Amino acid sequence: MAVLLGLLPAALAGLALLAALLAPPFLWDDLVAFVTMARWALRCRRRFARSPPETLLDVFLLHARRRPRQPLLLFQDELYTYEDVDLRSNRAARALQRRLGLSPGATVAVFLPNSPTYLWTWLALAKLGCAMACVNTNARGRALRHALEAAGATQVLASPELRVAVEEVLPDLQRSGIHVFYLSPSSPTPGVPALLPDIEAAPADPLPAQHRAGITATSKAMYIYTSGTTGLPKAAVVTELKLMMVASLACMCGLRRDDVVYTTLPLYHSAGLLVGLGGCLNIGATCVLRSKFSASQFWADCRRYNVTVIQYVGELMRYLCNTPPRPDDREHGVRMALGNGMRAEVWKEFLRRFGPVSIREFYGATEGNAGLINYTGKVGAVGRANVFLKFFTPFELIKYDVATDKPVRDERGLCIPLGPGETGLLVVKITRHAPFHGYAGDARKTEQKVLRDVLAKGDAFFNSGDLLLMDRQGFLYFQDRVGDTFRWKGENVATTEVEATLAAVGFIQEVNVYGVAVPGCEGRCGMAAVRLKDGATFDGDTLYAFTRDTLPSYAAPRFVRVQDALEITGTFKQSKNNLVREGFDPQLVRDPLFFRDDSRRSYVPLTPDTFAAIQDMRLSL
Prior knowledge:
Luciferase, domain 3; Rossmann fold; 34% helix; 22% strand; single chain
C-alpha cells in the first residue's frame, strides 16, 4: 500500500501530462483565463451584495486606511499618497457641497486636462453620491453644449487652461441655468468663480456615509463620451458595478499591487480613467500620470519613475516605434503593456526594439456589455473565443452587408452566424449578467445599438459596430469599424487593411484611408490622407508601383491628399468626417492633391480640369 501511495503523485502527474498532450491547443490557457476573470467578476458582485454595498470608492478608502503612505499618484515632480488624495478629496467634497449645493444623485460635468485635480475631484463627487460627466477636453461649441445637456449636468468644474472653450459657450450655458466654476486659485473669466481657495480652506474630515446611502450596483457612477469621430458625442452610462468591473480589467491581465502604471491617455475616456487609474485604486498600485503623450520623453519617464506597466492605444505604440533608435531602448523596467488597437506589424516592431514586454491587448467599448482580452500574447489578436467565457457571455460574428449597412438575415428573419476565416459583425447577447445601459438622454441612439431577433425570435444583442475575423484556432482579429468599410467596384474595402499596407511606403509617416462619393459611381472611391516623413517628398511613381504590387486595383486609393498633420481624437483615433466632407475638390482643399493616373502609371497632381472631368463623368474611374 505504501508503495502504491508513493506512486500516486507520479501517476497523477502522468495523467495531467497526458491530458495536456491530448487537449486542444490553448485549452489550458482558456481555462486559466476563465478562472481568473470569473474570480474577479465574482469579487465585484460580492462587493455589491454586501450591506451597504462596497464600491470602488470604498476599496480606495480601505487602501488609504491600511497603507496611507503608499504612493498613489506621481505627476511631474509631485507625489500624492493614498492618504493625501483621501484628505484632499474630503476638502473638495465639503467645498463643492457648500458652494454648489450638491445633493446625492446630481450630475456634475468635469472639463479638465490630465492632472491630480481630476482624481481628487472624481473621488470628491463620489463621496457626495454624485455622478461625474467626463467631458472631452477637445469638445467645443455645439459639441460641448450637447455633452452637458445629454448628461443632465447643471454644474461644470473646469480648468482655466480651457478658458477659450468655456468662454465660447458661457452665454449659452448661463441662459440654460448651467453654472461653471474653475478649479484654480483665481479666475480669468468674469462670471466664473474660482473654487480652489474654498477647497483649501475646507476641513478634511471624512464625509458622512448618508451621502451614499442610496448607492446600488445599478446607480449611475459617471458618463463617459464616445470619441465623436462620427456625429455628436454620446454619453455612455457607467454604473457602479460596471465601474468596478472595468477597474478590474487590469487586474485580470496581471496588474499587481507593487506595480507602477504609466498612462498618458486622457482621463476623460475609460482606458485612462477606469482601466489605468481605476485599476490602481482597485489593487492599491501606483499611477504615473502625464498631461499629454510625448514619444521623445516616454522611455525617459519610465526610467525616472521606475514604471513596470504602460498603457497604450495603437497609434501611441506606432509613434514610439517611429522615434529614432537609441542605445538605451531596452533599458527600462516595463514588464507589461496594456491597451488596444495595436496592429500586428507595430506589435512585432515594438517587441523587437524595446524587448520582451508582455502585451495584453484587449477589445471593448465603453458602452459595451462585454469585452475580450488577448491573454496568450498572440500577435495581432484582440482576444479568443474562449468556450468557457462564451458560455456565460454569448457572442457571435454574424454576416454583414456593408453596402446596405445591415446584417444579412435568412428566410426566418434571423441573422447568419459565421465560422472561422469569415469577417463578420461582432454582437454580444444582452443578459442579466451582461446588461446594456446605453446612452444618457438619447433613447433613440441606445435602441440603435440593440440588434433584435439575432439567433432566435425575441433575443437582443449589443451591436458593437465592429467587424472581426476568427481564425481556426479561435483567435479574434479586429478588421474594421462598420462605418470605415466602403464598397467600390462591387468589392468591400477595409480602410485599416489599406492603411496598414500604405504605412510601409518609405516616404509616408502616417496615413488615413476613407471613401469619397464620385458622381455617377456606385459606392465610394478610395482616398488617402498622408503625412510625409520629415525631409521626404511625395513620389507618385513609387506610390503607384507599390500599390499596383500590394493592393487589389479596387483597394488602391484613387486620390491622395498630403497634409502637414492628420486630425486625430484625444484617444489617437483618426478622424475622417471632415476629410470625407471635403472630398477631392481642389477649390475646397488647400492641401496638395494627387490623382491615380493609370495611363501615366503614377499619382499626378489633381488639376481643376481633371476634377471637372470626373464631376462631368467624362473621366472613368
